[in-house]
Amino acid sequence: MTLTNRTTRPALAVTIALAVLAAGVVASLHVGSRMLSPEVVWAALTDPRADDADHAVVTARVARTVLALLAGGALGLAGAAMQGLTRNPLGDPGILGINAGAALGMVTAVALLGVTSLPVQIWFALAGAAVAGVLVHAIAGLGRDGATPIKLAVAGAAATAGFTSWTSALLITDLQTLETFRFWQVGTVGGRGVEVVGPVLPFLLTGAVLALTGARLLDVLALGDDLARGLGRRAGLDRLVVGLSVILLAGAATALAGPIAFVGLVAPHAARILLGPSYFRILPMSVVIGAALVTWADVVGRVILPPTEVQVGIMTAVIGVPVFFALVRRGRMGSL
Amino acid sequence: MSIDPATDASTDRITDRVTGRVTGTRLATHDLSLGYDDRTVVDHVTTRVPDGAVTVVVGANACGKSTLLRGLARLLRPGTGQVLLDGKSIHGIPTKEVARTLGLLPQNPVAPKGVTVVDLVGRGRAPHQGRFQRWGAADEAAVARALEVTGTLDLADRVVDELSGGQRQRVWIAMALAQETDLLLLDEPTTYLDVAHQVEVLDLLHDLNATRGTTVVMVLHELNLAARYADHLVAMADGRIVAEGPPREVITQERVSEVFGMQCLVVEDPVSGTPLVVPIGRHHSRRPTLVANGATA
Questions:
Q1: Inter-chain residue contact B115 with A277, CB threshold 8 Å
Q2: Mean pLDDT over all residues of chain A?
Q3: How do residues A67-120 score in pLDDT, each as one tens digit?
Q4: Taking CB atoms and an 8 Å cutoff, what residues of chain A touch B132?
Q5: Which CATH superfamily is domain B1-101+181-253 in?
Q6: Fewer CB near the last or first residue (10 Å), C or N of chain B?
Q7: DSSP string for chain B
Q8: Considering only residues 4 to 63 of chain A, which have any Cβ-Cβ distance to chain B shorter than 8 Å?
Q9: A117 min Cα distance to partner chain B (Å)
Q10: What is the ipTM of this complex?
């Protein structure tokens, strides 16, 4: 008899989420200003000699699909880890200013210091993410009642505004950088080749392993500080490890696709609704939902306002802002 | 048993003054002071928790009883003195090791929304698991045992939020039991429960102590239930222990009025034979017959 890990129909929810993700990948290869038939896509994917316009389009779409999957999965996971770590239902690296901090770090490296190597830029993104995370929590922690979810969200919004305007200021003084980062600054998976993935991947994977192995810790932290201590967790060290995973995931995702907000908010809440409160399920499911969300946001963004493209970061905000308000209005802010 | 305060503090043996029996003590405090900010709440307390017994801490609101329990569970850093577990300072022992010896159920724990009973109880296994370790047969068995002992096996798949107060408290105790510790600390485990559920929870803890030999330390508000279920009663006032020992010795009219600042009558509990405190307010005076009965009881 297995007593553990039983809830209502988790297999169905996981199957549907994976199907939505797979459909998003297929759609991402076919849909765009230039609609392609499955035969054309298939031929371009399988025939290495094909070297026509369609092939170029498919190659570009493969790149942005990979970017969307990685950035979405990373942000979903980072959000889940952050919500568990801070027991804050608004824990999203976008809302809490971490993505904006990473973006500022990266643009500082490029525009101010002339760093051209992506691996070095990533370190700046990670440093920016870490500084932003610490800063926002320090500001929100001021005052008697400590870092409440609302204070964190307000501090995060303020930090995001500050970092973003600083990022813009750096970009507009440097036309060449602006050209590269104009869309990235809003959050996009288009226009950057698949070659940006390689240098970022080690950071993503390290962050993912640290976050996914933190499930038990997060489950225990969810019981409150006293019980967590009673159950043998050293709050400090454990939190540092999970916090590091958030920085790695959010920083790397931002390096890939720019500061995308709300994915880290929506994906874990959807996972929690579908699979219950155990982080053994929330964490992996947030990867799937986050990846699906960004992939679909990119697909819809390509066709919703022809002939232009709407950036992924704007599309996720369109989906995420109502969720944000629903969570705030529900009033059970401390319920995680 | 009553503790001889003259016992050498360096030994972990206590000689019972009445029976001469020697019992051990794994958990003790020495000159322990605890506080928040600049306020001292527990004031130079030296005491020993008798092994294999049910110890109940009582006292008026804000007397420091919950703080003492939190201190015993190493949730607070001592201002002076220390908490000793198996003779060593508890703050010097890795917290995970402490968690395999000493379980804690705080006051009014909050379950994550939508968590099932079996999931919650399973989280009590955390101290026995490593970061990369999988859920094993030992964990499974411990959870099953904890559910069975607490009578919550048939609730295993239910969502904790939907349970009654008494059921929920039994589930929390099951979680603490899944931790499989020899010592169990509980901070007011009967708060917000009606009297039937209070008795139910205390019976369960009594059973655990009787059948498994678990050392139980709990803070209780209800003096008469405390007197009934305690082997060892600790009365606190103003951050100090004013009396400790068997309930019969600790609960006297003078002491209740000293500790709670309330006039009362102490009679014999007709059910358990333990002391029963009958409060006297401003609006009721003693009926002569009752005094006579109480005096002869």
A1: yes
A2: 86
A3: 999 999 999 999 999 999 888 888 889 888 999 999 999 989 988 888 888 888
A4: 213
A5: P-loop containing nucleotide triphosphate hydrolases (3.40.50.300)
A6: C
A7: --B-TTS-TTSSEEEBTTT--EEE-SEEEEEEEEEETTEEEEEEEEEEEPTTSEEEEEESTTSSHHHHHHHHTT-S--SEEEEEETTEEGGGS-HHHHHTTEEEE-SS--PPTT-BHHHHHHGGGGGG--TTPPP-HHHHHHHHHHHHHTT-GGGTTSBGGGS-HHHHHHHHHHHHHHT--SEEEEESTTTT--HHHHHHHHHHHHHHHHHH--EEEEE-S-HHHHHHH-SEEEEEETTEEEEEE-HHHH--HHHHHHHH---EEEEE-TTT-SEEEEE--SS-PPPHHHHHHHHH-
A8: 4-7
A9: 35
A10: 0.81
